[in-house]
Design a protein that fits this description.
The complex is a heterodimer of chains A (412) and B (216). With 412 residues, chain A is α/β, with parallel strands linked by helices. Chain A is built from 16 helices and 13 strands. In chain A, the strands form two sheets. A six-stranded parallel beta sheet of chain A has the order 2-1-3-4-5-6. In chain A, strands 9-8-7-10-11-12 form a six-stranded parallel beta sheet, sandwiched between helices. In chain A, strand 1, helix 3 and strand 2 form a beta-alpha-beta unit.
Chain lengths: 412, 216
């Protein structure tokens, strides 16, 4: 259930909403189409589930389509995903043929919408090849990379680059993620929806129900990592950090996350994590359904400390969510976590399980510091990382592209 | 008296196309070669860029020197530069290069940033648009500021300093025409120390300034 733009006024402020309406007025009736590869699970689907209706609320003719693909296709695109994040993967010619075939099929299926849209935003690598079947497209096509492609495994990037270089523009979440391309590369950080099930305020009774359901002891400090079961999120490293702390202080750990329909590797990693947890009653490992947003919300609110010990990360929206709930975050020194976790202000950046354990102990020991960080963290998110800022930057990008050649200042 | 047209602006950052700098020498050479738009972005537009940090310094070069090169001396020297007090962006560039050259001459080895912490040269597009709101009397300015977005605050108070009359904000430039009664506000606006403020903080400063009955 999406919210109308006015619902955000109480949180973001009247001037922010009025500014969006004024920008929207200049784009009324324009056709904008978002395309990605999954309708649920993962940050991209979450972003599109609010962005599309809010654009419509502004009078823009916005749509969101999801491409269809075979199991082979999603295995292959998972390899692309890993390769773009620097993991050496073996990809064969037939893998790329599968990629092209699936994109060709979707290009035909979505042809009328893709052909007539003023702006097409293609999210991530999975549908990136669609563009080649639209040589006479009328709209501007934008490739939106949500993942960190700063140090890709070169053969994968080289192949993908051939598909994305023909776009009119690309968007990366951070400057550090960008790759050199022959078109303008814009920087738009993602955001969170404060009124979504995952971020909305919850009653104490609901929190207590979740605490009970997950068997969490209210008297013991709780450490929570919410993420997909993915090696780059280093769940095993989190367990190691927990064990180092548990030797000297009572603590409980929750590792919880959903799977995504485009992530076939998740079950394998989950198995490794279960083995590592070895029936420790204070380690709670849960594979959550894709729609368990309120559960995730409650677990984050029940946490004393949020951890996101990724070794590779996109922007790291779970960090933003944790900060919005007023929790200090211990984050891996990677990707967008680096942008959000500022030592001693919003949490701590760490590189090892030992470093994470040290900071967990520090935060548990300094309650006042933890409380101060909580207040700072929430205000940073309110000011800069709510969906209102994110939407504003998309509208700005579209107005920029409408104005033609890049100029430092555009009057509309 | 002419009415005050309330404008708004939004900013979107993009890569400048220049390679990133990994060390101080590269930073120097890129600053020497970059366009004025890049220089302006890293000095003046930082307040409009989303961030989780309240950095010690208000320009990106000083922040990078401090955080990524670990060169506090350079950070302090760069951090004190007030871009709005320079007559032109070339003047500003010259001063930055002088400071970096001096620092390079003091060092026995060039300082480097770790991989992943390099300096990225950015620029931005600013979309300016008319809100349609007009005010005609100075008394209307305070309620108007209360309604303004951070983009309007940036446009009328910071970005205005690049436009004629150069160095003045739009509010002060407009109030001047209303005679000596409003002169204390013009002077208070000119003396407002905004350099360390975020746009939300600056908006609060402006509201407090106009709420201050002692000025009237």
């Amino acid at each position: 259930m999406h919210q109308a733009l006015d619902e955000y006024e109480k949180i973001a402020g009247t001037p922010v909403i009025e500014q969006l309406r004024r920008l929207g007025d200049r784009l009324k009736g324009r056709k904008i189409l978002h395309v990605n590869s999954t309708a649920e699970g993962g940050g991209v689907a979450e972003i599109l589930s609010w962005m599309t209706p809010l654009m419509q609320d502004l009078g823009i003719d916005a749509n969101w389509m999801v491409i269809e693909g075979s199991k082979e296709f999603f295995n292959m695109t998972k390899s692309i995903h890993n390769g773009l994040q620097g993991y050496p993967v073996v990809m064969h010619k037939r893998d790329w043929e599968t990629y092209i075939d699936v994109n060709r099929h979707n290009a035909e299926k979505l042809r009328p919408l893709l052909q007539e849209s003023d702006f097409v935003v293609i999210h991530d690598p999975q549908p990136a090849a669609l563009l080649q079947w639209f040589p006479k497209r009328r709209g501007k096509w934008i490739w939106r990379a949500h993942i960190d492609v700063s140090h890709p495994f070169r053969p994968v990037w080289k192949s993908l680059r051939s598909f994305v270089q023909a776009y009119d523009a690309s968007i990366f979440s951070m400057a550090q993620f960008a790759q050199l391309l022959p078109h303008p590369q814009y920087i738009i950080a993602p955001s969170i929806d404060p009124l979504s099930e995952k971020n909305i305020d919850l009653d104490v009774s609901e929190l207590e129900e979740i605490r009970h359901r997950f068997g969490l002891d209210p008297a013991v400090p709780t450490l929570v990592q919410i993420s997909r079961f993915d090696r780059f999120k280093d769940p095993v490293g989190v367990i190691k950090a927990y064990r180092l702390v548990a030797r000297v202080k009572p603590i409980q750990l929750v590792l919880a996350g959903g799977g995504a329909s485009d992530d076939p590797e998740g079950s394998e990693v989950l198995k490794e994590v279960m083995e590592e947890a070895e029936k420790d009653p204070n380690i709670h490992v849960h594979l959550l359904p894709a729609d368990a947003h309120r559960t995730v919300n409650a677990l984050q609110r029940l946490a004393d400390i949020i951890i996101q010990k990724s070794t590779r990360e996109g922007f790291g929206l779970t960090v933003t969510e944790g900060l919005w709930k007023g929790k200090p975050v211990i984050g891996g020194d990677a990707g967008g976590i680096r942008l959000q976790v500022i030592d001693h202000y919003t949490g701590f950046l760490v590189n090892t399980p030992e470093g994470a354990a040290h900071r967990i102990r520090f935060l548990l020991h300094h309650r006042e510091r933890r409380m101060q960080m909580s207040r700072t963290a929430k205000e940073f998110v309110r000011e800069n990382f709510l969906l209102t800022r994110h939407l504003r930057e998309y509208l700005t990008l579209i107005l920029t592209l409408l104005s033609g050649e890049w100029k430092p200042t555009v009057v509309v | 008296m002419s009415g005050f047209e309330i404008k708004d602006c939004v900013l979107l950052s993009l890569m400048s196309g220049m390679p990133p700098a990994f060390n101080l020498r590269e930073l120097r050479d890129r600053i020497a070669a970059c366009s004025q738009d890049v220089l302006y972005h890293h000095f003046c537009e930082t307040t409009l860029v989303a961030s989780f940090d309240y950095p010690d310094y208000r320009n990106d070069f000083a922040v990078w020197a401090s955080k990524r090169l670990g060169d506090k001396v350079l950070a302090e020297r760069l951090g004190i530069i007030d871009p709005y007090s320079r007559s032109s962006l070339e003047d500003l560039r010259g001063e930055v290069l002088d400071i970096i050259d001096e620092r390079l001459s003091e060092q026995t080895m060039v300082s480097w940033a770790r991989m992943g912490h390099e300096f990225y040269f950015m620029k931005a597009t600013t979309i300016i648009f008319d809100t349609g709101e007009r005010i005609h009397q100075p008394e209307e300015l305070l309620p108007a500021i209360r309604r303004m977005s951070n983009g309007s605050i940036y446009f009328h108070f910071l970005e205005a300093r690049r436009r004629p009359p150069v160095g003045a904000d739009d509010f002060a430039a407009w109030l001047v025409a209303f005679g000596p009664e409003w002169q204390p506000y013009v002077e208070a606006l000119s003396g407002l120390d905004f350099y360390f403020s975020t746009l939300s903080q600056l908006k609060r400063q402006l509201i407090e300034l106009f709420e201050n009955q002692n000025l009237s």
